[in-house]
Amino acid sequence: MRRLDAAEPLATETDRLMRLGRANRMWVATLLGGCILPVVGCKRETGEAERAAIEGTGVGDSAVSSAASTAEVELFPEWAVDARWYYIDVPRFHNGDRSNDRARTLPWSTDWPVGVQADGSPPLDQAGLQALRERRYGGDVEGVRQRLPYLRELGVNALLLDRALPRSSTPDADDAALVEFLREAHAQGFHVVLRAASLRDSDPSRGKAIEQEFFAEALRWMDPDGDGDPSDGVDGWCLDPGTLSPQRLQRFRQQITDINPQALLLVRRQPFRYLPVASLFYPERKREREELLAGLGGDATFRAELGTLSELHAASYSVADDSERDAQWRLATVFLHFYPGAPVTVYGDEVGMFRGAGAPSNPPMWWNDLPDSGTKSPDYRGDFYALVQWLHSMRAEHAPLRRGACRAILLDESKKILAFARSVPGEEVALAINFGDTKQKVMLPVGKPGQLVYVLSPAIDPERAIRFWKRKKSGYDPAEIHRLPVGGSKQFVNREGKIRLWVKPMSVRVVLVFD
């Protein structure tokens, strides 16, 4: 066992941690002044090498860490610090207006191709992948607007929309639908960022004319009615790498922030680098787990990579009738929402939706309230939904999970225990994870001797949730769980500055400490 001092900081050099994982794609946020989203919304110094690395000019990460500070920039709009993200591929989220369906639009419940598995195997050939890309289901911006109450109930407040402006024969109608969607989304408290791939003719390689078209199209949606008030426009853009050169990217950033100083610019980095949560709780991944856990006690240098928007796909873990993989997915999801960064719920992950090889092969969203009886999958996971909803509520209610510094508490490979905490002045939230198969006692150093702390026991296991609600005496149906049961208790910190917890197998305990 390796015990860490309670004050030892949690390593935040995620470039080292991200080498080992898979299936957890990272989005890196290039923000107003050329920086990356930090843990806290404050000012910092940004050096020439760091800016070059951020904008893809080839300066390596080692230069970033040692760069001399040369310019102070405002890092981040406040709304983005507190964002709880949800990614939507608009054409496959919900068909809200059937009148705009194009030719060869398939019914929403059309069977997904046999052989497209959650792990992407067997691999699709190019023809098969292209066929999936070209499938049309009628999803549209009006469909997203109709599902805003669902998203609000799930607890998200920031939407990343892909393919929100598809090419169609009725662009005026599409534009009007987007204007109405933005109006209603903002009225309901959402911020909206569009992926730039959804812009029409956004190919910068065609020269200055295309750059001007690209800018004009993007800037029009920053203020659709052109009255100088950006409140009716999109709140930011997400660009794929190579969409704009570093120089054009800087000009684009300047133009959007001239219109809206609170605009957010996200740049997706390549090659993809992953947090190792995908394999953290697999029993066979001992080496990867040990490297990650060892990294928790390392040098705490807050670096640009803290700006990751982290996608943790349910399909990477959830396979039908595989309860062990489901348990691993639940722990990884909890870990990601407590760890520094900005977790993104990808549409369908919250109900266990399977995915294919890459975004183009993602199937239509599983809805359980459509008239077509074939729409709701028998693999629909209400317990996944309840867990994601609870995690969003925790991030909304507790500032340490959005802005807090991190410190490692306990690493124990033999007992399969991982514990760390995040804090802001006046509040700390600690997480203890048992990723083993036996119940474990944990002595957790939190708070001060004699202080009263609160312990939460979320019933993330669906069988426990069913028993908690007394819905059934035996067996369970994960689709029936709509809210996550969370038990609670209080403890006084002992004179050694510790509390005692019992953590069940493949489960977590949360400790809330208030000054």
Key features of this structure:
single chain, 515 residues, alpha/beta, eight-stranded mixed sheet, seven-stranded antiparallel sheet, 16 helices, 20% strand, disordered N terminus
Outline the fold blueprint:
Blueprint: E1 2-3, H1 14-17, E2 26-28, E3 43-47, H2 48-54, H3 61-66, E4 69-74, H4 78-81, E5 85-89, H5 126-134, H6 141-146, H7 148-154, E6 158-162, H8 171-187, E7 191-195, H9 208-222, E8 236-239, H10 246-259, E9 264-267, H11 277-280, H12 286-295, E10 308-311, H13 323-338, E11 342-346, H14 382-397, H15 400-403, E12 405-412, E13 417-424, E14 427-434, E15 440-444, E16 452-458, H16 462-469, E17 486-492, E18 499-503, E19 507-514
Parallel strand pairs: 5-6, 5-11, 6-7, 7-8, 8-9, 10-11
Antiparallel strand pairs: 1-12, 2-10, 3-4, 12-13, 13-14, 14-19, 15-18, 16-17, 16-19
Helix pairs in contact: 9-10, 13-14
Describe the structure.
The chain has 515 residues and is an alpha/beta fold. It has helices at 14-17, 48-54, 61-66, 78-81, 126-134, 141-146, 148-154, 171-187, 208-222, 246-259, 277-280, 286-295, 323-338, 382-397, 400-403, 462-469; strands at 2-3, 26-28, 43-47, 69-74, 85-89, 158-162, 191-195, 236-239, 264-267, 308-311, 342-346, 405-412, 417-424, 427-434, 440-444, 452-458, 486-492, 499-503, 507-514. The strands form four sheets. The chain has an eight-stranded mixed beta sheet. Residues 1-74, 114-120, 270-275, 297-307 and 314-321 have low confidence and may be disordered.
